[in-house]
Amino acid sequence: MNRNPDERQPVSRLFVRSPTGFRSRLGKVQEVAALAFHVCTVKPAAVRKGKILGVVASFSIRPARRPDLPALLALYGQLSARNSADLQPAHLQAWEAVEAQPGLQVLVAEMEGQIVGTVTLALIPNLTRGARPYGVVENVVTHAAYREQGIGRALLAEAERLARAVKAYKVMLQSGASLPEAHAFYRRCGYAGETKRAFEKRWP
Fold this sequence. Notes:
The chain is built from eight helices and six strands; from the N terminus they run αααβαβααβββαβα. The chain is 33% helix and 21% strand. The protein has one domain: Aminopeptidase (3-Layer(aba) Sandwich), CATH 3.40.630. By secondary structure, it is an alpha+beta fold. A hairpin with a 2-residue loop joins strand 3 and strand 4. The longest helix has 15 residues. The radius of gyration is 18 Å and the shape is globular. The chain has a six-stranded mixed sheet with strand order 1-2-3-4-5-6, sandwiched between helices. Keywords: Acyltransferase, Transferase.
């Protein structure tokens, strides 16, 4: 779909009732994200440290594309040392599955041609709460050189916008129990850490 971003329809008009029902609405998440090309203005860490005086950079938030995979893997390496930055056939297969999955969206923040942050949103059909879906946020990471500049907050806000567009009743995320700085960040973004307790089971 080719549209001038300045002429895009309001989100509420994109999500209308149709004979195909809820799955159709989730399928439109990618369409809505493609229409949303948000540009923000920030000062990179180098500017704050006085290395580049008088320079202000801007970043945009958009859906990730296949050519972004190497940059995404590099970011995931900052998220955890267990994540390999080497592009493997398994990554390409996983990306094809991501693109084919309705309601699954990987967003990136781009600054001057560099991917500096990302978040993944999964919108899940649901039979409770009036059959309203809910969102799961994962893989929230900002490049170490660009943190504390509003990039992570902007990525979460865009994920929340997409969730609200399909009338999701909540978004939720998990954070490592030993990451108090991350917990404080999520609280500043409006997430409550006391209403639920997360449990998980992992396999090698």
